[in-house]
Structures are given as structure tokens and as C-alpha cells.
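User: quick one, fold this
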Amino acid sequence: MIPLCSQKTNRGFTIIELLVAMTLGLVVLAAILNMFASQNRTSAVQQEVAYAQQNVRAAMDLIVRELRNAGYDPEDNGFDAIPQATSTLIQVRIDYRGDNDLPGNDPPYDPPDGAHDDANEDITYTVNALNQLTRDDANDGVAAELMIEDVVPNSLQFTYYKADGSSFVPADQNDRDDIRMVAIQFQVHTENEDRDYSGGYDLYPSSSGTCRVRTLATRVRIRNMGFQDI
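Assistant:
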């Protein structure tokens, strides 16, 4: 007679054991999928931040270049270099070249003609009602050019300085003629939310918001207007 303890059995898993194993597997799978989704969202946000920074820097470079040349007047015609200057808007005039500076014309261009009625010679920067930074060329015959979207409301600020370094608010054209330096600052936010926010950077529209924010600030010396002090 064969002892019972030595007999082989074909006993399998119970229903409870299978359910426990399946539950644990689903928990592990859910954790992996959640981690993957979080990393994917983080990567998307980082791409948006990089894209926003690239656009902001490109726009700022153009603003700086055109503000720096404000009042360039080689013919000494004496036009108003900065006809508008508020905390949220600035208009600058430059006499770059002559009458063939039109869209579609090829260089070499005519020399400066003593006026600011050619393309790229009368420029206004501001933020519109849709919170978009715009550049309006008064002489190109088209609407204001969109430069940057998703500007944080009320973040664009122009601050004006005199030759002695003191800041002031230009009240009229005589004051605007005294501008020697302009400080520029504005913020942009990412288009999509950052649902994995864990602190360490600014958010829009407030501490309870979800979009990352980037700030850029610089100062521009209006070198051509400085010649009036010599």
C-alpha cells in the first residue's frame, strides 16, 4: 500500500489566489502607466517652455534692436524719435534708408532720405486685448504683426530713464525727448497646463494656476538720442 503522503496530486490555483494575483498585476500595471503618462506630460510641458523661451528671446532681440536705433536721423531732419511712450506701449521712429525700402524690393536700398515714412521706420510695440505682443509697422500697409501669444496679462512694462539714471513717466513730447534708456519686462505662459506642478517655478494665473511662466527683462540704451547731450 502506498502512503498517502507520497501520492502526487494535480491541485491548481484557487479562485481567490487568481484574483489576488490579477489584482496585484493590475496595480503594478496602473503604476507603470501612471508613471509613463506623468513623464509624457512633463516632456510636453518642457517642450512648451523651451518653445516659449525661444519665441520670447527672438522677440526681445528685435525690440531691443529697434529701440536702440530710435532717433537715428543722419539727415538731421529733427523728427520725434519716440512719439508715444507709456508703461504698456512704445512707438519709435528711425530713418534707416530711402524710398525703395518696400516689401519685395531687393537691396541695395536708397540712403536715408530725412523721413520716417519707409518700411520698418515707424514701429509700435504693445500687447493687444487678446494678450498678444504685437509689432505695428505704420508704413507697411498691413495690420499689426503678431509676435508672441500667451502673454501674461498686465506683465508688459516699459520703464523710462533720463540721462542721470532716474526713472520718470514721460508726460509730453518734451519729456519723451529726455528718454535715454528703456527697461522692458514681460512674461509669457505655456499654452497647456502643468498638472504635475511640484513647486519651484512661477505659475499663471496665480499660485493655484497650472501654466508655467517665463519672465524676460532687459534694458536698452537709446544711443542716438544721447547725442543731444554732447
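User: anything notable?
Assistant: Residues 21-229 form one domain.
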